[in-house]
Design goal:
With 453 residues, this protein is mainly β. The protein has helices at residues 135-138, 148-151, 295-298, 392-395, 417-424, and strands at 2-7, 13-18, 38-42, 44-46, 49-56, 59-65, 72-74, 88-93, 102-114, 117-127, 144-146, 155-159, 164-168, 181-185, 187-189, 192-200, 206-213, 221-223, 238-245, 248-262, 265-275, 291-293, 301-306, 311-316, 331-354, 364-387, 403-407, 410-411, 431-438, 441-448. One of its GO terms (molecular function) is aspartic-type endopeptidase activity.
């Protein structure tokens, strides 16, 4: 089994590689209790990614649900947490980026629970490297990744509108007629699903491509082979920071495809990323793989994945016609620790008075005793970690290391990180005013979002 893990501010791409055997779908692993035919859990959708509650050895955590991953991975923990983990063996994990990868520990015999489904002998890969703290880029707690070990035993329905994941025991699942549904066949390699879709290339010639189905990628598409036209002109792409991988930073190019067909479903102006070659050197991909299809396309459908039948069924939802966005500000921001702030607040004491005779129409007098006080609260700090060259943010003077204090006149800690990311991808011409802190000095900057593609 080989492993890749890549994360970026808005665009997250995950796929784990180690040494593994041919694909098989046994009933080992997560299973529902006897007599239970299905279960449903709520999830949080952040940057097109599905984050579900998972319990590991009795500890409630938040995991990214990722079809592009084979192993279950746990990170963002400290050395003291090893008391919860069994039988740990060191292994090396190599991933995207130019570095040498990270040290991980394979642990067997763990108990994992997702909704009513459980597994009492689950293998987990632990990473203690604090630089791989994905929560700082997401703005919400992320403790791990769950993939094949969840999908292999169930038919899994992901409803991106209601934000519910329903998983069925295949033996008791009754397939209903689905109007408007499209069924794609899946091919498996190292326990990961691949599907064939079509695209119009940069010469407007329609061609088929084979892509990893990667719900752990928040991008729409990743492609590994750059068009020849990129070498002669830069009008159809821009260079960008794509994310942080196990082996270092990942850079590449962002562009768009005029047309993409997922089955018979037709999409236009689809955003696509091309990682630099050095980021994927030395990694042995499925020989027919051209790239990945991620959350920015998958979220436009209700998705049924059936590993046993090797199919993925798609039905359009209300997100289907949404435009494909990208970061027009050129800023990559992460949550970096906490700040202490003071706020004035009002404390109220309410006293209820009524007469001795209490009935349905008895008047109740409410006496309010209000006083103003100062409260001290801990709030997140948002730091600029990357600024795209030539972007509106760069031209306004923002540099890496700046701390964002206010956005459009509002204290930034009142905004969630993924909401800030959405703002930077919202609308061409949108005016952004920032108050930043640099070397203990407050500076005001402003810029407007500009279309690059």
């Amino acid at each position: 089994m080989k492993a890749i893990y890549k994360i970026s501010l808005l665009y997250i791409f995950t796929a784990i590689f180690f040494c593994c055997t041919a694909t098989s779908f046994s009933q080992e692993g997560l299973v529902l209790p006897t007599g239970t035919h299905k279960d449903k859990i709520s999830f949080e959708l952040v940057n097109n990614l599905v984050i579900i509650p998972v319990e590991v050895n009795g500890v409630p955590l938040s995991f990214l649900l990722d079809t592009g991953v084979d192993a279950t991975i746990l990170f963002g923990i400290t050395e003291s947490d090893t008391l919860l983990i069994n039988k740990a063996t060191p292994v090396k994990m190599r991933g995207l980026g130019a570095g040498e990868g990270v040290l991980a520990f394979k642990s067997a015999g763990n108990k994992i629970k997702v909704g009513e489904a459980s597994d009492d002998d689950h293998s987990v890969y632990l990473i203690f490297d604090t630089s791989l703290n994905f929560s700082t880029r997401m703005g919400v707690p992320i403790h791990g990744i769950l993939g094949y070990e969840f999908f292999k035993n169930f038919i899994v329905k992901t409803d991106y509108v209601s934000k519910k994941v329903t998983f069925y025991n295949p033996k008791n699942y009754s397939r209903k007629k689905c109007n408007g549904c499209e069924v794609l066949n899946l091919v498996f390699y190292n326990n990961k699903p691949y599907a064939e879709i079509s695209m119009a290339d940069y010469n407007n010639v329609k061609q088929s491509i084979t892509l990893l189905v990667d719900s752990g990628s928040s991008d729409a598409l990743w492609l590994f082979d750059e068009p020849e036209s990129f070498s002669s002109t830069n009008e159809s792409y821009f260079k960008d920071y794509l994310g942080l991988g196990f082996s270092g930073n990942i850079f590449g190019k962002r562009s768009k495809l005029n047309e993409v067909w997922v089955g018979s479903h037709h999409l236009e102006d689809v955003k696509v990323a091309f990682p630099d070659k050095q980021a994927i050197e030395g990694i042995n991909f499925f020989k027919d793989r051209d790239g990945s299809i991620g959350g920015d396309i998958l979220k436009r459908f209700t998705v049924w994945v059936d590993y046993e039948a090797k199919t993925m069924t798609l039905r359009k939802n209300r997100n289907f016609n949404e435009p494909f966005y990208y970061n027009m500000a050129g800023l990559t921001i992460e949550h970096d620790g906490l700040d202490v702030v003071t706020e004035r607040a009002t404390w109220q004491k309410l006293t209820f008075e009524n007469s001795r005779e209490v009935g349905a129409n008895t008047p109740i007098k409410i006496v309010t005793d209000a006083s103003v006080y100062t409260q001290i609260i801990l709030v997140p700090r948002y730091i600029v970690v990357e600024v795209r060259e030539g972007s509106p943010a760069a031209l306004s003077g923002i540099v890496a290391g700046d701390e964002i204090v206010q956005v459009n006149g509002m204290a930034v800690y009142k905004t969630k990180l993924y909401e800030l990311n959405t703002l930077f991808s919202s609308k061409v011409g949108k005016k952004i005013k920032l108050l930043i802190r640099r070397n203990n000095q407050l500076l005001k900057v402003k810029f407007a979002l500009e279309k690059v593609l």
